[in-house]
What does this fold into?
Amino acid sequence: MNLILLGPPGAGKGTQAKRLEQTRGLVQLATGDMLRAAVASGSELGREVKAIMESGALVPDAIIIDMIAERIGQPDCQNGFILDGFPRTVPQAEALDAMLAARGRNLDHVILIEVDEDALVDRISGRFTCQNCGASYHDRYKRPRIEGVCDVCGSRDLVHRADDRMEAVKTRFAAYRNQTAPILPYYEDRGILRRVDGMAEIDAVTRQIEAILADRLEGR
Ligand SMILES: [Zn+2]
It folds into this structure.
């Protein structure tokens, strides 16, 4: 079972990947971590990567593909893998497919954990915290028992910090869209893009993913 997991920051991608590692014996392959590991290993590939990174250049796709090829050939990846952070362009997706095909492997699913940006911003924008003890509240979901007074410590120093957090969320969403949007049509055309509702509870998201994987196993 070979997967790509896509989703914006805050969609719970890391949590879901961890669960798939435990339940399915899949290995999460984050390309950033793999590059750092290659450099640390001092291998021929690692020295090449180190020189490229030190020059300030982007690591070429071909090297990343080689690195993934080497990694998925190791015994712990025999049950499959979850790619995280790669591919981000159509040429990268094509190169990945070609490399997998040459090894008699393929991608089973590209799972997109969808999160509604407006709803997420709404959740974050209502939050406020006690400056004295750090207790957190929400305009709609968790108001203090006495208006304007912290339940925990009795302080009246409750502060909204919505603006900067909302900006941070919007910036991260924009970066995510730029990185992900180009490859969605590629996988949609191949019939392997599957969407799950990332606004659901963590366990419900896991169940949606499990249903997709079970579907594949039963050959439906
Ligand atoms: Zn407090």
